[in-house]
Design goal:
13 helices, alpha+beta, four-stranded antiparallel sheet, 13 strands
């Protein structure tokens, strides 16, 4: 499909006001560049007060939300696009609202038989009113002395801290509450980080080649390291073919259980014995230079531009 066949420009919506604004802008710029290599007239549109006016003024024919975090993955931008009846790539506002909350999403995945981390949800209000002393020992007794603390809503490793021992857990929670009023404290699982991207094609839902993510020692929970090439490595995991296939199956099942559409990225921890847990399924996979999605496309003998182009084409055709 050429620019003429699209019959107008495409909006890649990025930026916004969340803590992940800079990451979103980087994703948006990369996605626009990839789409243009496919002959698509694509432009970055910021999520601001001028957005709806700009989309109408420019006669945009479809949108590809690349907003990370609040307003992008919580269903807000999707609600706006549905309101103006503009075709867009990605999950519906309703599905986003469910998947955005890690605790709610995990409950659905658990009920479907998908292995998820043992975790405890704790609000800032409870932490403040009940007190750290009364809570922390019980948390550690259930989950073990090594845990990971993260915001219940959000991404890009913002507010995520690895904790080893009771003494530093309260301060880790305080840091997390700066990003979200609800925290998840989850059991630490030793293993390798593996991500699987799912995308919908004319032949149905498929999964790309699983990708292992390795971080420089000491940067496993570091926001900046995730977007600094010298601190992160993406590579094909050294795993048996059967396990690779199983991760793809589970990622596709998570995509379906959460009611997602078009694209998703499921993040796993795979232990040395071959067991695994699904940490979360992201609604809007990033497209930065250190993101899994572009690398997974290349590893699967396709490209980010081709995948994005086909998803847009399908949305416009469905309209």
């Amino acid at each position: 499909m050429t620019t003429e066949e699209f019959a107008g420009p495409v909006a890649v919506i990025a930026g916004g006001l969340s803590h992940e604004r800079d990451v979103s802008l980087a994703s948006g710029r990369n996605l626009v560049r990839e789409l243009r290599t496919r002959g698509v007239e694509a432009h970055v549109y910021d999520f601001d007060r001028q957005l709806l006016h700009s989309l109408e003024r420019d006669k945009v024919v479809a949108a590809f939300p690349m907003l990370h975090g609040q307003f992008g993955e919580d269903g807000e931008i999707q609600t706006l696009l549905e309101l103006i009846d503009l075709p867009y790539v990605g999950s519906s506002s309703r599905a986003c609202k469910v998947a955005w909350d890690k605790g709610a999403a995990r409950e659905l995945l658990h009920r479907a038989g998908i292995p998820v981390p043992d975790s405890v949800g704790l609000s800032a209000t409870t932490f403040r009113d009940i007190g750290a002393t009364a809570l922390m020992e019980h948390v550690m007794h259930r989950l073990g002395h090594r845990v990971v603390v993260k915001p219940a809503r959000g991404g890009s490793a913002l507010g995520v801290t690895g904790v080893d021992g009771l003494g530093v857990l309260p301060s880790a929670l305080v840091e997390t509450y700066a990003y979200c009023e609800d925290a998840l404290i989850e059991r630490f699982y030793d293993g390798i980080d593996v991500s699987v991207v799912c995308h919908e094609t004319a032949d149905g839902l498929t999964s790309l080649t699983p990708i292992a993510i390795e971080y420089e020692k000491g940067h496993e929970f570091d926001f900046s390291a995730r977007y600094t090439a010298e601190f992160v490595s993406l590579l094909a995991p050294d795993l048996p073919d059967e396990l690779m296939a199983r991760l793809g199956e589970v990622a596709r099942e998570a995509h379906r259980v959460l009611g997602l559409a078009d694209l998703s990225r499921s993040d796993f921890i795979v232990s040395p014995d071959g067991s695994f847990v699904l940490l979360e399924t992201a609604i809007t996979p990033g497209t930065t230079e250190t993101s899994v999605l572009p690398f997974a496309c290349t590893a699967s003998d396709t490209s980010l531009g081709e995948v994005a182009h086909d998803l847009l084409q399908a949305r416009i055709a469905a309209r």
